Automatic annotation (TrEMBL), chain A:
Its EC number is 2.1.2.10. One of its GO terms (biological process) is methylation. PANTHER family: AMINOMETHYLTRANSFERASE, AMINOMETHYLTRANSFERASE, MITOCHONDRIAL. It comes from Octadecabacter ascidiaceicola. Keywords: Methyltransferase, Oxidoreductase, Transferase. This is Aminomethyltransferase. Belongs to the GcvT family. Residues 594-861 form the GCVT N-terminal domain. Residues 884-970 form the Aminomethyltransferase C-terminal domain. It holds the Pfam family FAD_oxidored. SUPFAM superfamilies: Aminomethyltransferase beta-barrel domain (SSF101790), FAD/NAD(P)-binding domain (SSF51905), Folate-binding domain (SSF103025).
From TrEMBL, chain B:
It holds the Pfam family SoxD. This is Sarcosine oxidase, delta subunit family. GO terms for molecular function: sarcosine oxidase activity. GO terms for biological process: tetrahydrofolate metabolic process. It comes from the Bacteria. It comes from Octadecabacter ascidiaceicola. Coiled coil: none annotated.
From TrEMBL, chain C:
Belongs to the SoxB family. Pfam families: DAO. Coiled coil: none annotated. Its main location: cytoplasm. It is an enzyme of class 1 (oxidoreductase). The keyword RNA-binding does not apply. The gene is soxB_3. GO terms for molecular function: nucleotide binding; sarcosine oxidase activity. It comes from Octadecabacter ascidiaceicola. This is Sarcosine oxidase subunit beta. Keywords: Cytoplasm, FAD, Flavoprotein, FMN, Nucleotide-binding, Oxidoreductase. NCBIfam families: soxB (TIGR01373). It is found in: Cytoplasm.
TrEMBL record, chain D:
It comes from the Bacteria. InterPro entries: TrmE/GcvT-like. This is Sarcosine oxidase, gamma subunit family.
Length: 978, 95, 416, 187
């Protein structure tokens, strides 16, 4: 028999056997096992190494509070570091390996640290490694970092997917022990929408671990029967393998469902885990309690574990850590472990109880005393006991169960403002008064440690929260033992007695922390790292607090408690991200001509989630500049077309529409004639330029406003703010219609000729002059909008049709444009043409520029109120020598003028105090045959013709430049009006 | 957090965009002699209380209403939610 | 007692009996020359420099709880000086230089580690902006380097460059940036200040200010009245609350910023990386935890905790660039309260009340500023004039229109 | 009659249909849309027209599933009207005639993509897609919500297993991908 420590009974399925590997060695376990229980069954006690001293470690617990038995689960890209063997559900073919070791687990070379532990006390690193100065980063820190960390990531992309989801209910029950099940029954029978969540893969909580009977059947059977009833209720949603990770504001809980972690790999298309956001009116927290250890010398050897964990292994998993077991306890609970193990045929070496009045037993020896030390290199062999009479005994045992009392799992009660309060009967913290909204705590989590107390508390909680009328049905008969505990935290004189096993914090470290003045709980925690390990201090915080209290001569509640923060247990980053990874990180927005552009081989660029064609390479072009230069030249020579759908569009309607725009734009709109378009500059209330665009008056009471692509959302929000909050009685209605219309710019000397072949109306220069706009029809009757506006500086139009026709319109334009050699152009060519025209765009409207900086100071109307007007008049925004937008060209046409470079005077130092300005946007102008830039220069409008240096030390460029007008092409705008 | 929208009922706060102090409704008179000072205070100074706070939230992923939410900045408790437009009207903001 | 490797050995061999408290626990005196309110990083640094650099005596730091419990103990430990604007860059560069000699200066190993910080670039416009910024850094005497995607990939081979929604087009690196063991900064300054005679008084909450003839002459505290020649407030996060006791309204809001740490992992992150197209930045601590963060929750809050949407947003950003982190687990999350100012930049200035000085508005840039903030505030307190690198951090800049707005977001604090 | 042919939001000439055992996902290309926003002081007049048009005024969070025109409430005094595209291509113009200067009408046909989810997995899928209390929503309930960061309308239709999603048309592919993913997840 390979599973030498497998007992009989339990809730595993002995008929289903799984093979698994740990550190390369094969073992067998059963369905229903965890990795930890299966390893124990096979006689494996040594499962890991501690963080600092690399002490050999085995399991301490049988649950998610486990500090020691951490493994790297699975291999390859699915390798998952720091996985608790105590919660990893066994599956056939599972592969795990131990971590944080140099060499094998048995012979870890880093264990040498343990020999030097006297030098490596709490906070030692703050006091040394400072000389010589350079050595910290070059010598000391690399060594420390190399030793740091526990498990390792594969550094391959996580191949699994994660879902997110949303659930709504009347009552969320966290925990499926007796209190949770009782609450679920009460609530479920009332018809309320109930969610019952438990982190375990088997519902029932400690009922599965204990031998108490409920109503004449075993607790486990009662739990199974209750689950069967609940499963049949359509209003109860049962969520196994689901950890509620946090209680957030207003009854929102985060929960992680491990859908596939018990499988070798997830099923195709299925997520590994799901993050549920649960919206609930009420919550019953029935998270149970965690047993706490007692600190004594060398209390960390493999085989030493919580007494309650021993019961779980024996009763649920049919496993014992060894055939010869001792118990050390300060309360009656430890005796239960002895009784249960004895009943399963395990030899009890003795029960050591610190209490003089401990119960005695016919089946095993009960000693009044303390365990003062242990022996055994890679696992426990002997426990040394000091008896109350002063004599000593050495107990031979391969496992030692320790019971120091129970701590209610109050974590979730603290996730908001709650602070637990001290209950001296239990010698433990229990939930305080200030609970998250709608929460009631029941059962052991509330300090009701008996099974009866849990059943009663759960039922009452559900009843009161849901306002269920009538009397509760009679609860089944069950155990109702009082708690009988004598606070006992550590054995007197113990020094290397572990409080926080993972982080290697001992009693001695806590004492040193006190000695050095780190006495507040938070200082203790931060100085010693107590409770900062992956188990979040679930088994260690109380011990540390108790010792600090004793040293400080205070009570435990006077010392306080550290704050419990989400998540309840460590949570995969992947599941918190859900599907928003890779290409799905953000949604994509495709323009109406996207498919057509793809067919032409366009290169796309991301702008505010839009994918826009950046340029359209043609055969033979090997560098993007070739394509862009060609597109620019062809547009300026004949005609080009560009998809400008992405510009934000806001439909502004109503009798007060013009008045409204007068308010949001710094320039005037009240008198804009119907059929006309005007450029508008919007300021923020602080007087800085916010956005620019055009407003076209299609009717007396109807404008279409455009915004820049990037600002579509904030501008719309701002306009709604002005409408609803500042001018609530203006009769104006706003609708964002960005996506409703496909809009294309047709630009170039032949633009009109081309469009005349499409539109159904007269668009001659007289009928449809520069800045005209109209609702028209095209192609024999399709409704469309036409604007004669130009970003390129050419004779240009923007034509819009309902989006569904966008693809067809683009193909039509290309078709009729063939005779003009029409060239589609992308955002790069668009950018070149706008720089050639000196139009400001995102790089210039960078949130710090004023209208004056942009050379548009004259546009801020003094005749009317508008947003930003008053604050735009502050001195700091109107100082002499302020920045002005200018054009920059290289003196030697071959030189670059990079954006982001700074302007310096022709002579003098090059440093920050002599900074004159900077280039914002730059490009190569194929029309001028050299690079050009626009930028901001101090007192720029007075410095035309000045020679300066444009320097970019970052990219190693320094160019002699001349300051010129930003209107490099057609400064008088003749082409626009042609 | 959940914001009890006066028209739509409980909505997750992640559907909203936050702007801050609802005093931003009280835009000063630009014609007043003290306009420069008034706008500076309006634009820049905040009570920033630790406790109850009237604040503006925009239902960006909802009905595009601006709301005035009375929320406790210590506990995040919400005691009142109104349409900002109603508040603006009640505060006498005319055309 | 001086800390050193020898001392550690000596103490280890003698049972660690000789270690003394890192700072005394004195009773407050009736009055001091200078009182600093706030025993966080900035307050302790101010006291330290007042005593060490400006020859001031009779100094006390009053802390309402335990020292280092505010943002110095709850940040993501990053130091850098990669700022753009004239008002900021010289100050943060001064700070970085102070960091570089700090441990030797105050005889405490704060594990200052210049591992480098890298801002990823994802668009041409962003590159232009980062070139401008990198140039501003160099022109101010800081270091900066533009890295190509290949150079970045060599350092972070598991960065997502293949299947990224926002492809990486390079990055702006500051190699002198890095991380510091945050708690140790508070403790190091506290110990250093204590050795110079500064009284560090914990559990002493200031409940009011006493004014006489328009001058602030002392503070009411939970431990009684304490008089002072000058009083400096350094309570970022709670600035508005404290200053409301003298009826001052500040140009700031208090916001919660969450931070996160993963379980301990073997080293994977050599330096600090900031994702330029999402809300995510990350480094790895000497203990092995991935330390990361992102955006503000976005609403005014004095509760030191946040909510799920931002947790998810940050993790989405993380997975977008580091898909290998999916199987690492988030261990702990917490929140700190930020003084979010109206232009994203701090204030170190006199108040309208004689004898009362203010330091705050650090947004989420306070940690890296700690040494310079302390130094400059000490300068102001001792000499009544601003330090040359902090001349722009004035209260009146909003009224006069001299904002220092790095991000260009205007008077909307949660966008800075 | 004009000479341009339209394409569906997913770029096809025919609507996309994805059929699984547990759900059928149909791109619905047949809906014309226009929004109606009441002008100040004309709310009552608008209600009258709506009642005439739909048989009832859609209440907040509700749709009136009337034939051929249907409508739902988008916000305060603001409604979305839908009708078969075949017969109502010029829906906005038709509504302008009906409402006169009582309301501002905006054509919305091009702004949205419409997907119909029908099948036993509809509720499970909804839970993975968006934050709506789908199991307590009844026929005619409408929620504006977020699906994969996209602002969408969800309408629980007359049949118990039918949910209609209106999402931003430019992101039709992203939305479709999210819906398909949820379908595979819940299979």
């Amino acid at each position: 028999m390979t599973q030498k420590n497998r007992l009989s009974g339990g809730q595993i399925d002995p008929n289903e056997t799984f093979s698994f590997k740990f550190d390369g060695k094969s073992y067998q376990g059963h369905k229903g096992d965890t990795l930890a229980s299966a390893l124990l069954a096979n006689g494996v006690r040594l499962m890991g190494r501690s963080f600092k001293y690399h002490r050999p470690r085995g399991v301490l617990t049988a649950g998610s509070e486990e500090p020691n038995a951490l493994v790297e689960l699975r291999t390859g890209a699915r390798q998952e570091p720091n996985t608790r063997a105590t919660t990893a559900e066994l599956f056939d073919g599972l592969v795990a390996k131990s971590q944080n070791r140099l060499g094998s687990l048995r012979f870890d070379a880093m264990a040498i640290n343990d020999r030097f532990s006297n030098f490596l006390t709490a906070g030692f690193y703050y006091k040394t490694f400072m000389w010589p100065k350079a050595f910290w980063e070059k010598v000391y820190e690399p060594i420390i970092r190399k030793a740091a960390g526990l498990g390792s990531l594969s550094l391959e992309d996580d191949p699994d997917v994660y879902d997110k989801g949303f659930l709504h209910c009347d009552l969320l029950i966290i925990g499926s022990g007796p209190a949770g099940l009782s609450a679920a029954l009460t609530a479920g029978r009332s018809g309320a929408q109930v969610i019952l969540a438990d982190e375990d893969f088997r519902m029932g909580g400690r009922l599965n671990s204990e031998t108490h009977e409920i109503g004449g059947t075993s607790g486990a059977q009662w739990a199974a029967a209750t689950m069967a009833e609940l499963s049949a209720l359509p209003n109860v949603r049962i969520m196994t393998r689901t950890t509620v990770i946090g209680a957030f504001d207003h009854g929102i809980y985060g929960a992680v469902e491990r859908v596939s972690d018990h499988l070798a790999t997830p099923e195709a298309g299925k997520p590994r885990q799901i993050l549920w956001r649960i919206y609930t009116k009420h919550t019953v927290l029935a998270a149970g309690a965690t047993e706490r250890p007692i600190a004594f010398e060398n209390n960390d050897r493999p085989g030493i574990m919580l007494a309650s964990a021993m019961r779980t292994y024996a009763n649920r998993f049919a496993v014992t850590a060894d055939q010869r077991v001792a118990i050390f306890t300060n309360n009656d609970d430890g005796h239960r472990t002895a009784a249960d193990l004895h009943a399963k045929g395990v030899k009890i070496a003795a029960v050591v109880d610190v209490r003089a009045d401990a119960p005695s037993s016919m089946d095993y020896e009960v000693l009044h005393g303390e365990v003062v030390n242990t022996k055994g290199r890679l696992g426990l062999s002997f426990a040394e006991v000091k008896l109350a009479d002063g004599s000593t005994r050495t107990l031979e045992a391969g496992a030692l169960g320790v019971s120091g009392g129970w701590n209610p799992n109050v974590h979730m009660t603290c996730h908001q403002r709650g602070r637990p309060t001290w209950n001296s009967d239990l010698a433990a913290f229990v939930p305080g008064a200030d609970l998250p909204m709608g929460m009631v705590v029941a059962g052991a989590a509330n300090g009701d440690l008996s099974t009866h107390g849990a059943l009663l508390g759960g039922a009452q909680a559900a009843k009161s929260l849901l306002g269920i009328k009538g009397r509760l049905p009679k609860l089944p008969e069950t155990e109702d033992a009082p708690v009988n505990v004598t606070p006992f935290w550590y054995v007197e004189g113990a020094s290397r007695a572990w409080i926080d096993q993972q982080n290697d914090v001992t009693v001695k470290d806590v004492k040193l922390s006190h000695q050095e003045g780190f006495r507040s709980v938070e200082h203790l925690k931060r100085y010693t790292t107590l409770g900062m390990a992956t188990d979040q201090g679930k088994t260690s915080n109380m011990g540390g607090l108790a010792i600090m209290a004793e040293l400080a001569g205070k009570t435990i509640p006077e010392v306080g408690t550290t704050i419990f923060r989400p998540p309840y247990t460590p949570t995969a980053i992947g599941v918190l991200a859900g599907r928003h990874t890779g290409q799905d990180f953000h949604p994509k927005r495709l323009t109406p001509s996207h498919k057509w552009a793809e067919e032409r081989g366009a290169v796309f660029v991301e702008v505010g989630n839009w994918l826009r064609a950046q340029w359209f390479p043609i055969a033979g072009e090997t560098h993007w500049r070739e394509s862009v230069d060609r597109e620019v030249l062809a547009t300026r020579k004949s005609v080009g077309v560009c998809d400008v759908t992405t510009l934000g569009k806001v439909d502004v309607q109503g009798p007060d529409a013009a008045q409204f725009l007068n308010m949001v734009y710094c320039n005037g709109f009240a008198k804009l004639a119907v059929g006309k378009t005007r450029y508008g500059l919007m300021l923020r209330e602080d007087g800085i330029a916010m956005d620019d665009g055009t407003a076209a008056r299609l009717a007396e009471d109807h404008f279409v406003v455009t915004t820049t692509t990037a600002n579509a959302l904030p501008v719309y929000r701002h306009m709604e703010f002005v409408r609803q909050c500042l001018a609530p009685d203006m009769d104006v209605q706003l609708i964002s219609t960005t996506e409703a219309w496909a809009q294309y710019a047709v630009a170039g000397p032949n633009a009109r000729k081309l469009l005349e072949k499409i539109v159904d109306v007269d668009i001659s220069n007289d009928a449809f002059p520069f800045m005209a706009c109209a609702n028209i029809t095209i192609c024999g009757g399709l409704r469309a909008r036409l604007f004669r506006i130009s970003f390129s500086g050419e004779l240009a139009y923007e034509i819009a049709v309902p989006t569904a026709y966008g693809d067809a319109l683009m193909r039509k334009i290309m078709e009729v444009g063939e005779e003009f050699n029409i060239t589609p152009y992308g955002t790069e060519a668009l950018g070149v043409m706008r720089i050639e025209k000196g139009h400001a765009a995102g790089n210039e409207l960078n949130g710090t520029t004023t209208a004056a900086n942009l050379g548009m100071g004259h546009m801020v109307s003094s005749l009317k109120d508008s947003i930003g007007k008053v604050l735009s008049q502050r001195d700091g925004l109107n100082a002499d020598g302020d920045l002005r937008q200018v054009g920059i060209k290289p003196v030697d046409p071959a030189d670059p003028v990079p954006a982001g470079a700074h302007l310096m005077n022709a002579d003098g130092p090059v440093d920050a105090t002599h900074d004159q300005g900077y280039a914002t946007s730059a490009c190569y102008s194929p029309n001028l045959g050299h690079s050009i830039a626009i930028g901001f220069l101090k007192n720029g409008s007075e410095r035309m013709g000045e020679r300066m240096r444009l320097v970019s030390p970052l990219t190693g460029v320094e160019t002699e430049v001349e300051i010129v007008s930003a209107h490099f092409i057609d400064p008088d705008g003749e082409r626009l009006r042609a | 957090m959940i914001i009890e929208h006066p028209l739509l009922g409980p909505r997750d706060s992640s559907e909203f965009t936050y702007m801050g102090d609802a005093k931003l409704i009280d835009r000063p008179d630009p014609e007043a002699e003290t306009a420069a000072r008034d706008f500076y205070e309006y634009g820049y100074l905040r009570d920033n209380p630790a406790g109850w706070h009237d604040e503006l939230w925009f239902h960006e992923q909802g009905d595009r209403s601006w709301l005035v939410v009375t929320r406790n900045t210590l506990t995040h408790e919400i005691s009142k939610v109104e349409l900002a437009r109603d508040v603006a009207r009640a505060r006498g903001r005319s055309k | 007692m001086r800390y050193s490797g020898l001392q550690v050995i000596k103490q280890a061999l003698t049972g660690h009996k000789g270690w003394k408290p890192a700072w005394r626990d004195p009773e407050p005196k009736p009055n001091y020359d200078i009182i600093i309110i706030g025993g966080g990083g900035h307050g302790l640094a101010t006291a330290y420099y007042l005593a060490k650099e400006f020859g001031q005596k009779r100094i006390a730091v009053l802390e309402k709880g335990w020292i280092g419990g505010g943002n110095v103990g709850r940040n993501t430990t990053i130091i850098r000086s990669n700022y753009l604007l004239d008002g900021n860059e010289p100050f943060y560069e001064f700070s970085l230089k102070l960091w570089e000699g700090l441990e030797q200066d105050f005889n405490y190993n704060a594990m200052i580690s210049q591992r480098g910080i890298l801002n990823l670039i994802h668009s041409d416009a962003q590159r232009d902006a980062f070139i401008r910024r990198g140039n501003a850094m160099l022109l101010n005497g800081a270091d900066a380097e533009m890295l190509t995607t290949e150079q970045i990939k060599a350092r972070y081979p598991y960065l997502n460059t293949e299947d990224a929604r926002f492809p990486i087009k390079g990055g702006l690196a500051q190699h002198r940036g890095g991380t510091v063991r945050h708690d140790a900064v508070a403790w190091g300054y506290a110990r250093g200040a204590d050795k110079l005679g500064v009284d560090i008084i914990q559990n002493c909450e200031v409940t009011g200010f006493r004014q006489e003839n328009g001058r602030c002459v002392g503070v009411e505290t939970s431990r009684g009245y304490i008089g002072a020649g000058k009083i400096g407030c350094a309570v970022a996060g709670s600035s508005s609350r404290l200053m409301s006791k003298v009826d001052m309204r500040l140009p700031m809001e208090s916001h919660v910023l969450q931070a996160f740490v993963s379980e301990g992992l073997k080293p994977v992150m050599p330096g600090v990386v900031t994702f330029g197209a999402g809300h995510f930045y990350c480094s790895q601590s000497d203990k092995g935890g991935l330390v990361f963060g992102g955006d503000l929750d976005g609403y005014n809050s004095y509760a030191q905790r946040g909510n799920l949407p931002v947790v998810e947003d940050v993790c989405e950003g993380g997975m977008a660039i580091f898909p290998a982190f999916g199987r690492a687990r988030l261990l702990r999350m917490w929140g700190g309260i930020m003084d979010m100012s109206m232009d994203g930049s701090p204030i170190i200035d006199r108040t309208p009340i004689d004898g009362l000085y203010f330091n705050g508005g650090w947004c989420y840039g306070g940690f890296k500023a700690t040494p310079a903030s302390g130094f400059c505030f000490a300068h102001l307190l001792a000499r009544d004039e601003p330090h040359p690198t902090a001349t722009a951090y004035r209260f009146n800049r909003f009224e006069t229109g001299h904002m220092i707005d790095e991000k260009g977001m205007g008077n909307q604090p949660n966008l800075h | 009659m004009h000479s341009l042919t339209s394409v569906t939001a997913l770029g096809g000439t025919e609507p996309r249909i994805d059929t699984f055992d547990h759900i059928k996902i149909t791109e619905n290309d047949g809906v014309a849309l226009a929004s109606v926003a009441a002008r100040i002081g004309r709310e009552a007049a608008c209600h009258k027209v709506l009642k005439k048009l739909l048989g009832a005024v859609p209440e907040t969070g509700r749709a009136v599933l009337h034939d051929p025109e249907a409508g739902f409430c988008m916000g305060p005094d603001q409604w979305m009207i839908g009708a078969p595209k075949d017969t109502h291509e010029l829906l906005a113009d038709q509504l302008k005639d009906l409402f006169g200067d009582n309301a501002s009408i905006t054509e919305q046909s091009g702004a949205w993509v419409c997907f119909d989810l029908r099948g036993p997995a509809m509720e499970d899928m909804s839970e993975r897609l968006c934050n709506i209390p789908i199991r307590s929503m009844i026929s005619g309930d409408v929620r504006r919500t977020v699906i994969h960061q996209l602002g969408c309308f969800t309408i629980r239709r007359a049949d118990a297993d039918h949910l209609r999603i209106l999402g931003p048309r430019a992101s039709a592919e992203t939305l479709h991908h999210a819906i398909l993913t949820a379908a595979l997840s819940t299979a």
